[in-house]
Design brief:
Length: about 250
Amino acid sequence: MRIATWNVNSLRVRLPHVLDWLGTHDADILALQETKVIDADFPEEAFTELGYHVSFSGQKTYNGVALISRSPIHEVITEAHALDDPQRRILGALIDEVYVLNLYVPNGSAVGSDKYDYKLTWLSAITQTVAELTKKHNKIIILGDFNIAPEDDDVHDPKAWEGSVLVSDAERDALQNLLALGFKDCFRLFPQEEKTYSWWDYRGGGFRRNHGLRIDLILASEALAQSCSICAVDKEPRKLERPSDHAPVVAVFE
DNA sequence: ATGGTGGCGCGGCCA
């Protein structure tokens, strides 16, 4: 099974990139974030025509998540139990006996801000939800835009970023609490080229200078992590005209 | 240069 995550920063704008990518990469499951499209306007047929099933949870202007899957999508959830949140950031579903949880973790804006507090509360709530999922499912994949760089190796300039949002200790601790439920960061199961990132700021030639962060993650429950054979960032779509600021991350499970 | 770039949607927010 080939599964990928991609923050597309507007599906309306990036649909050609996404369709081209699906056509050449033969993914079984693609998790999208920041679709920025309400459900009534979701381009469902563009995917069903290619033989995919789709599920989506969108809103106007901001956020929005979707799952594109070769196999049928069951047991959909769009909420964390402990959170009454109008923001559409969560899409979980059972696909071929694997529970897939697609997340668009809040950015957090700045350490100490209201948005930062919301991010930590949100992470706590999703961790509770995952704890519940682990009682029912053995094979779980959590993937998406985590808006957290797990380690300094995931940061182009750790000194410059030290203590700021996306790398702060409290955010990293929250991610570790989630991993502690029995998940592996698939990317780190394998030797990787140094300075591999998944997001580069549009500003200041971030991609050209490889000023990036690895914040798009694929986490697999231990039962599944054993069968993971590849996890890699595909930088190619970031080189296209009018790209998303994120690149897709792909994992293969045998 | 008190920013920079991009999306949404038409002024300012969010990333």
